Amino acid sequence: MNTLEALVRSFAEAHPESAAHALERLDPGEASKVLGELPASVVGPVVERLAPHAAGAILSRFTPEQTRAFLEAMPPKQAAAVLHHVEESKRGEALAGMPEQAARRLQELLKYPPETAGGMMDPQVVSLPIDLTVQEAISLLRKAPRQSLHYLYVTDRDYKLAGVLGMRELLLAAPRDRIEPLVRREIKSVRATMDREEVAALMREHRFFALPVVDADQRLMGIVKHDEVLAAVQEEAFEDLQKMVGAGGDERALAPASVAVKKRLGWLLVNLATAFLASWVISLFEHAIAKVAALAVLMPIVAGQGGNTGAQALAVVIRGLAVREIVPRAVWKILFKELAAGFLNGFAVAIVTAGAVLAWYGKPALAAVIGMAMVVNMMAASLSGAAIPLVLHALGRDPAQSSSIFMTTVTDVVGFAAFLGFALLFMRWLV
Amino acid sequence: MNTLEALVRSFAEAHPESAAHALERLDPGEASKVLGELPASVVGPVVERLAPHAAGAILSRFTPEQTRAFLEAMPPKQAAAVLHHVEESKRGEALAGMPEQAARRLQELLKYPPETAGGMMDPQVVSLPIDLTVQEAISLLRKAPRQSLHYLYVTDRDYKLAGVLGMRELLLAAPRDRIEPLVRREIKSVRATMDREEVAALMREHRFFALPVVDADQRLMGIVKHDEVLAAVQEEAFEDLQKMVGAGGDERALAPASVAVKKRLGWLLVNLATAFLASWVISLFEHAIAKVAALAVLMPIVAGQGGNTGAQALAVVIRGLAVREIVPRAVWKILFKELAAGFLNGFAVAIVTAGAVLAWYGKPALAAVIGMAMVVNMMAASLSGAAIPLVLHALGRDPAQSSSIFMTTVTDVVGFAAFLGFALLFMRWLV
User: Residues B162, B202: one domain?
Assistant: First the structure.
């Protein structure tokens, strides 16, 4: 091993998180070459800290033997997260060579997508049979891996989750006591299929730092810990931010430009199509614009103001849906509130705009036209900004996905149509 | 007590979280009346689950005696969070009547704003002097409040943080052993002034579920727990989403329309001013538009496409800054990447746009003009979308705050100027 390699190795050993960040910025080919030189024990902690899609890209370039060695060096939870991003065929090859029990456990985990409790859980959970004594429980714990001891779950004879035992209660009890009376029975558990936003809401509400995950028969499958949820809710929130404007939810600031093209271009083209729709609306009023050039000058103000108004409603509603503040029966209340807010803000903005236009062009009719259009468009903007994510949510779609593009379609079309339409109606006072 | 009151009381007792949500939707006056009827022991858990600004508004309507009773029923951490939102004078009155030690503890906490480790910490932390035996430590723990026992921090003779003791090590050790050799010395701690995003990053990186908070002399002040951080990072992320478009970071979907006016109107007026700036740019080209009406029809396409492109870059960079993925030396790399992405996406969109315009108007020069303008504006959009949050961040300002409004100013002005400017240059082939 040369000096540089030794350096990389000691860096990766001491700072797996930073090493993971550094690797994500390399080309996957180069990154896999760097990792290929290092022993599996060093690579494991680094790979489990990579963004799963980066880890998948890197691992896809390994031989099945290498992949297997790395997967075995990782906790099953992280191994499954990485495998979700490795191609199906490569995945099968790697699993085929693993010890049967480990492979079965991974396959079990792979059934649950990463956005569910099952996908986030750690299957390495210690459970104590309920008929133990305190002494027996303690000697069982001596053999358990250290990191699995946050909560001590207790199971009954059918391996069903029976309750939880406090480390403190165990500490303070007499060795020959049975654990059964110490077990707290009222315990929250989550189904493996539960969505991660729901898990996060439950954790936040009850201030747990872990939740047991169970199958349909209440059998203990694993544990979801706070750090997984912490990472997940933050990711989710920023994914919403990015998806709202049609960037990919998982694009990272330091990804190469090619990723930014791949993730963004599709939605830019959708936006282009909607822009042409708005243009077509304008073209219907070409004669009016030819007569009064000021219309062309002023129309982007109405549309732009609508876009901003709509984006505000959009952001507030997307947040409300994500943190589960918005319950189904509140939907009408929110729509009404946004309509009212659109009217009030629209009225205030309309007065200022009309005043400025009067000062600029000295035409009261033009000021009135832009003022009326502003109120109409800001009401449409506020309403559609709230309605679009609510409708997407009701349809079972992602309420954030490109909602900003759909919303500006409404505000552009309504904005131009209202302004130019009112202008046409009052044309005789405008020329 | 009548039936309705009994109902409210049992509801608030069983579901403090839901009760808090329900109260936030009431007028603060009504909410304080409802709470005023209930005993402090029931009110405490509800008030500590209110959004702090709502709790502040409600408590401001109580008498100092009532306020004091509620504050005393709450853990100091939550009491301080609520007090941050109560007027200075009311705050003083309530504190004046409290037992001296409790008042001093609260005043200490109030020094740290809620966005810092000190503002998020729980000062009720159990610490064990390092010279205890295992037996002595256990009997000390017997007296400690249950919820404070996640980690057992150990302090030396000057009350400085010396390390942490595992509950498991304590459980497995002999009663007469000294705890000193069991103490883990390498321990991460955070200063009370550390920003909450940094605390979250540390917690995520090291997978802790709590971090000890220390003062400048390494003396233990409290503990920041995962649930505080979980709530904080999610709040922060959605605040970014809302602030980006000029809605208030703390506006909630179910707040009344008046809040939406108060939080949004200011930025809408700023947006209006920038819209007039863009209009003024258009007005410089009025003659060109009067000659070629198609220019008015097509110009919003260029501006709108720029707005969408810029918003994508904005979202990706705001996320990168918030999760601390963007380090200072990566700034130039990101700007260059966004410029490249703007060029590539711009080129692709320009080709499609030019094709569509050629099909629509049959004028190759018009198609060329819009294509060129599109490339220029999408490069400007991508660059400014990345640069605006980076500059705000470098200036120590919030990178999300209304960045979308600043960005669309650039894309509107550049979009209109580029498109109409190129049109003027090539006017002889357009008419």
Answer: yes
